[in-house]
Sequence to fold (264 residues):
Amino acid sequence: MKDYHYHHSNLMNVPTAYFASAAFNSSPLPVAINGVREMNQPLFEHLEKFEKEMVPKLFMEHMRVMFELDVPDEKKGKKKFRANYLRLLRGWFFDSNRPEGGVMKGWAESRFGLSPIFHGELIESYNDPGYMIYLYEKMHPRFHNNAIFSQFDLLYEYCQYYLKRFGKPKGRMKLYRGMNRMGGDSQIIEKRDKRLWVVRNNSLVSYSSSIERASEFGDIILEVEIPFQKIICFPEILPDKLPSYEGEYIVLGGDYLSKVVDLF
Fold:
């Protein structure tokens, strides 16, 4: 699994080997998906004119118009599903190992060079049956249409804009994750001491801002300082569109220096 978890090619401005390393999280570089901010510069210039409560509404309206998200899913009497970033995000929040999650992991692999290490089952090489299932689901015709990768490109850049403008000045978030001792979409790579581990996360993975909520998803609780550059979505940036009770953040994977913490 040493080199499987990333490719050497990506569509960003940082080498994947560094982006996927624990060192990036302690010393992050600015990250951008090639050409996305430049092609949508009028949107970001317009967002600067408005206060925090209006910015998400303007972004979602831009997405609705740009990708025709409200066009009826029918053509010549036949129903046609139009992929929508909000629909895929809701699918992720329900179960990240469904086809919606496969498409999102495929986007992370394409843009950031991060290969999945789990999709319904452990993936240790490109020859594993689990990888074949992932390949099918990331290209699922129901969800992989309507420029869905471009929708997530813009969501990522919007999230980076929002965090830079309204997030904490230190440029990182303290988040928590419940991890099972048997592994899964997080794998222990190194134990630097009893409570300080290097954990390899899936290409996309969920963390929570609530330690209590994180404890519901595993028998080990990890605390991580995650740089803004690794965060792609959380409920605050799309108010009333995603479940917020778990304080869930969708985060790009790779290796994370993680502190094992007690709930009480």
The mean pLDDT is 91. Residues 16-261 form one domain. The longest helix spans residues 148-166.
